[in-house]
């Protein structure tokens, strides 16, 4: 297989840039500088990854796994509903948890610690009523019905003179 010469690649890039960039942009972009910065960033990243992999194995035993006060949440949607799920590690949390929602957010308060507030933005609008929360197998699941917003507003496009 033929070896690739960096100068040939540089010439090809120059040729492509000159074909696609308007003449007035020519002085604005110094592609040589961009290539040098990209090369140095790639080399730094590669050096960092090898250094990190060496230090990660040494410090892996020293790092705690997960703290009990972490808040983990997952959001997914079906055709009709949106679900928010979070693990409940202590059943005492259920006695103090408060759940609220707006048309596009869920607010979960007092878990894992009293006074903590978590605002989760939802992928689509939901209805005001019909939200249900249930606890099963150490998992709190909040089910909300999507609101099909079918109100369309026409926007006029004015012709510029």
Give a structural overview:
The chain has three helices and seven strands, in the order H-H-E-E-H-E-E-E-E-E. By secondary structure, the chain is an alpha+beta fold. It has a four-stranded antiparallel β-sheet, with no helix packed on it. It has a three-stranded antiparallel β-sheet with strand order 3-4-5, with no helix packed on it. Strand 3 and strand 4 form a beta hairpin.
Q: How are the strands of the largest sheet arranged?
A: 1-2-7-6
Strand content: 15-25%
Task: Return the string of H and E elements.
Answer: HHEEHEEEEE
Which value, in Å, is the CA radius of gyration? 27 Å
Tally of helical segments: 3
Structural class: alpha+beta
> What is the strand tally?
7
Structural topology:
Blueprint lengths: L5 H15 L10 H29 L14 E4 L3 E7 L4 H5 L1 E4 L3 E5 L7 E5 L10 E5 L2 E7 L16
What attributes does this structure have?
161 residues; alpha+beta; 4-stranded antiparallel sheet; 3-stranded antiparallel sheet; 3 helices; 30% helix
